[in-house]
Amino acid sequence: MTSAPTLVLDGRFARELPELALPWQAAETPEPRVLALNEPLAAELGLDPGWLRGDGVGLLTGTHLPEGATPVAQAYAGHQFGGYSPRLGDGRALLLGEVVDASGRLRDLHLKGSGRTPFSRGGDGLAAVGPMLREYVVSEAMHALGIPTTRSLAVVATGRPVQRETVLPGAVLARVASSHLRVGTFQYARATDDLDLLRRLADHAIARHHHGAADAEHPHLALFQSVVAAQAALVAEWMLVGFVHGVMNTDNMTISGETIDYGPCAFMDAFDPATVYSSIDTGGRYAFGNQPVVAEWNLARFAEAILPLLADDQDAAVAVAVEALGAFRDLYSAAWSTGMRSKLGLPADVDAAEASSLVTDLVALVQGDHVDHTSFFRSLGAAARGDADPARGMFLDLSGFDAWTARWLALGPDADAMDRTNPVYVPRNHLVEEALAAATDGDLAPLDRLLEAVSAPYDERPGLERYAEPAPDSFGAYTTFCGT
Ligand code: AMP
Ligand code: MG
């Protein structure tokens, strides 16, 4: 049985912030075909997967929407690689509207690859199957890892070819997010010089994400503090799991604290703060180890955008913003240190100074020997149970490893807790490439298998051994491409 839902797509963003919402329609799709469908997520939204695969596919491509829906292209600005672009916006995306999910949460239903809009500039408004499936796999892996992220509902092949370096099959990604408010949304509103718009945007963000701020003595300052805290926590999670976002422009940083816009992203293999995968990040601005500093820089741009809301007098507003932004480093460090303690299974009674020196020495060791980040931390679980050989086998500096391990084991690490913190499976670059190449050629089996592995990342299962292993040397140096 498949049934059409009584789906209500609200237009709250468009209603409250019409200056930032351009009503627009998705392009027709000649031959839609569902390549990936997230059935648990569909259920959360009250959508029947059978219907979505059949008569309902037009919801996933934006071509058949429930009555009353008002799809819009959202306006935003942004600093891209440090340079300001006053008008970016949804050049190949649409917000279809907001849905109340099964637990009463308001969530955006959004499309990527849905055709040209007035924000497209030189672009074709389209997306290819490979990059949309990449976002699907990596965002769902992030979700399964417990990291705040936008979700992927579906990827639908459109039947329309897309011209890139070669001709590729086109696709639309249906994405679900707690909202699509970005730092760049505030930059755009600020640049209009319309203080009322800026205030409405801030109030909309408070209502949707940072409810506590509404009751604060100074709600807009509390909003800023809350976003600083959410981003500090988010970026700490990325660093702990070895995630490189790749394009942390201010238009790709959310107000909600969810990871967004999976473009040239990748999971780091060998531990190295200088790791960069994106072909366009030639200066290493968005290298793995730079991500906390970049997040802080982006938050400074957010502060500038909302300055008029922080105090009437500009100097006073700057002082307030600087002080609030000052919390970022401590919040980030605390989140990262707590996360590292948990990755090492350290009992609560180990004191902070001891944990900190242990972590510092470990980072030097794994960096020195270019140890695979994911498999090393996972292998520490076995080491805590008495089998240090798999971890030891990753090092050249054996005496360094042995000395560190003896110190660590003396603290009584909790192996079971570590196995709940250190994933076995992340979407490794060679596996993602293999799955996307096969899917682009019409074979979805490798994609489904990879999704099976990364959807339960802490649960080691027989038959999935190769999903836990680093890339073979033959895979070579990895590069991801933007402009997807
Ligand atoms: P991104 O790098 O995906 O965050 O995108 C940055 C900006 O470029 C956004 O305004 C996008 O809407 C726009 N953009 C990216 N790809 C395309 C495309 N194929 N056609 C039109 N606009 C695009
Ligand atoms: Mg973007």
From TrEMBL:
- Which residues does ATP bind? G89, G91, R92, K112, D124, G125, R175, R182, D261
EC annotation?
2.7.7.-, 2.7.7.108
Q: Which domain of life is it from?
A: Bacteria
Instruction: Give the matching InterPro entries.
Output: SelO
Keywords from UniProt, A to Z, are:
ATP-binding, Magnesium, Manganese, Metal-binding, Nucleotide-binding, Nucleotidyltransferase, Transferase
Keyword Magnesium carried by entry: yes
Catalytic positions are D251
Question: Quick check: keyword Cell inner membrane in the entry?
Answer: no
Which reaction is this enzyme known to catalyze?
Answer: L-threonyl-[protein] + ATP = 3-O-(5'-adenylyl)-L-threonyl-[protein] + diphosphate; L-seryl-[protein] + ATP = 3-O-(5'-adenylyl)-L-seryl-[protein] + diphosphate; L-seryl-[protein] + UTP = O-(5'-uridylyl)-L-seryl-[protein] + diphosphate; L-histidyl-[protein] + UTP = N(tele)-(5'-uridylyl)-L-histidyl-[protein] + diphosphate
Specify which residues bind Mg(2+) according to the UniProt entry for this protein: N252, D261
Which top EC class applies here? transferase
Q: Which cofactor does it need?
A: Mg(2+); Mn(2+)
Role according to the record: Nucleotidyltransferase involved in the post-translational modification of proteins. It can catalyze the addition of adenosine monophosphate (AMP) or uridine monophosphate (UMP) to a protein, resulting in modifications known as AMPylation and UMPylation.
Similarity-based family:
Belongs to the SELO family.
Can you say what this protein is called? Protein nucleotidyltransferase YdiU
User: What is the source species?
Assistant: Nocardioides cavernae
